[in-house]
Structure formats: structure tokens, C-alpha cells
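Team,

Forwarding the record for the chain on the shared tracking sheet. I've put the sequence and predicted structure together so nobody has to dig through attachments.
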Amino acid sequence: MRRCVQAVDFYVRHSGTGVPGMRHSVYRLTDGEWEDFKRSGEQVVSSRALGETAADLADIVLLFRENGREAPASWTEAVRESADFFTGSLLPSGIYPAAWRVDGRPAEEQITAAGIPCLVALAKAYRVTGRSGI
């Protein structure tokens, strides 16, 4: 439990990109720096990685609750912020881009299935927050 709390706290506190709800994907322990994936030489945040991590965070909050423990409010807030980001970040086609630039804009308009984990994260965020319409 202690390791879980340390890891999740570190992620929630330090992985932000400056765009609420969008977080870096990779922490290089040896360098002490966050980085993301690269597409055409540009740093991007993968929708698949971001969605999977947001869904995992929601699962951890729910697991705490199911076992009679209250997860820190910052974790629930991170889940809500991710859900808000996903809700407002669809392409005109109605799907998620494969990746976003670190400023929150889509890295491309190509239609892919890479954003499915974002939908899973949204469903789990509803379970965490009880907010519909996110």
C-alpha cells in the first residue's frame, strides 16, 4: 500500500503538462525527467497511454473505496480533470486523435482506434465522481 500511495502521489503531483487533465507518459528515473512519445520529431501525448493511465488511476481510487480506504482528494481530482480533458478533446469526426501535442491540440486528424482507452477512462471517471456529462 505504501508503494502504491508513493507512486500514485508522485504521478499526480509531477506528471502534468500544463494542460489540465493531460499528463506526461514516461518518467526517466535516471535523468529525473518526464518525456512523451515522439511523432515526426515532435513530443506528443499518446491517447492510448493517457487513457490507459487515467483508467488505471480511476481503478486505484475505486479499489481504495471498495476496501474501506479513502483515496486522497488529489487523485479523484486528477480523474475528474482527465475526464474533462477527454470530453473536450474530440476531433471534429467525434473520435480521439492518436496523440495530442503537449499544448493540448491534436497531433493529427487521422481516424484510429487509439482513443478507445479514453472512453474506458471516461466510464470509470463516472464511477469515481458520479458526474454525468463528463
